[in-house]
Structure formats: structure tokens, C-alpha cells
Amino acid sequence: MSAAFVTTHLDRSPKHATRPGLWGRLRAAFAAARLERTEREIANYIEEHGGRLTDDIERRILNRVSGFDKVGFS
After folding, report:
1. Whole-angstrom Cα distance, residue 47 to residue 39?
2. What's the per-residue H, E or C state across 36-71?
3. pLDDT in tens, 11-60
4. How many CB atoms lie within 10 A of CB 63?
5. What does the alpha-carbon distance between residue 44 and residue 70 come to, in Å, rounded to a whole number?
6. For a tag on the chain, would you pick the N or C end, based on fewer CB atoms within 10 A?
7. Cα 26–31–37 angle (5° rounding)?
8. Quick one: how far is CA 45 from the chain centroid?
């Protein structure tokens, strides 16, 4: 009879956690700000076009976000 043992390191205490560096934190802050701005613009766009998310509105938003429509969201 044979046995296989699998062990994993389960110590996930804060003392082993690494904090991102300055550039990592700045990049994360800029990404979060850009996401918030985009979400705010999408909400405003939906509100300006009747307040309901229809297939047409969703398609327009996706075109703007993906860059197909150069007018839209950043």
C-alpha cells in the first residue's frame, strides 16, 4: 500500500503579505479613477437616452468603450 502526501503552505498571515510599490499603487489609483469616470459617463448616457438599457443603447456603449466610436468614453 502506498500513500501520497500533498502539502501546501497555508500561512496567509499579514506578516507575509507584500505591499505594492509606489508605481503599482499609482497605476492602481489611475485605473480605479478611469473606471469610475467611465461608469459615471455610462450612467449619464443611459439617463440621457431614456433611463432604460436597451439593446441599442448597450451596443452604442460597447462601441464607445471598445474604441469603435471615437466620440465616446475614455
Report:
1. 12
2. HHHHHHHHHHHHHCCCCCCHHHHHHHHHHHHCCCCC
3. 566 666 688 899 999 999 999 999 999 999 999 999 999 999 999 999 99
4. 14
5. 18
6. N
7. 125
8. 19
List the grid coordinates of 61.
456603449
For position 32, what pLDDT does the model report? Answer: 96
Q: Which three cell numbers stand for residue 28?
A: 492602481
In angstroms, rounded to a whole number, what is the distance separating the alpha carbons of residues 38 and 66?
12
Q: Are 68 and 31 in contact (CB under 8 A)?
A: no
Q: Model-level pTM?
A: 0.60
Contact between 66 and 73 under an 8 Å Cβ cutoff? The reply is no
**Residue 69 CA from chain centroid, whole number:** 21
pLDDT surpassing 50 at residue 74: no
